[in-house]
Specification:
Number of helices: 5
Largest sheet: none
Shape: rod-shaped
Helix content: over 70%
Structural class: mainly alpha
Mean pLDDT: 78
Low-confidence stretches: 1-18
Strand content: under 5%
Number of domains: 2
Distance between the termini: 94 Å
Length: about 120
Amino acid sequence: MSTLSDASDSGMCIRGAAMSLARSRTKVVYFRVSEAEFERYMAFCRSQGVRSISDLARSGLEILVAEERGYTLSGLTERVTALSRLIAGLSGTIQGLTEVVSNKKLDATLDQELQRAHDA
């Protein structure tokens, strides 16, 4: 079976698993699973390089807690999309203001040339 460090080297995507090794654990949580569930979870752990069902369960709970706080990839994607729209709107406004300023400079230059031509 792969160790957790081997799994992280191979691109394991379960968040929090690597960091969880560094924390001291003093509490125990029990839950029962059927034989079929146990086999399915163990097969998943092996396929993902996760060291144990405990690490899998801990990582899953960390993901659920992160989702509750809005720290998920989909939550971040929504925020980035909203920010992109805001930036696009601001960019359009800046472009519009730039055109107004350029037109005013052009108008001022034309007015000066007309005034010189009129004075001459």
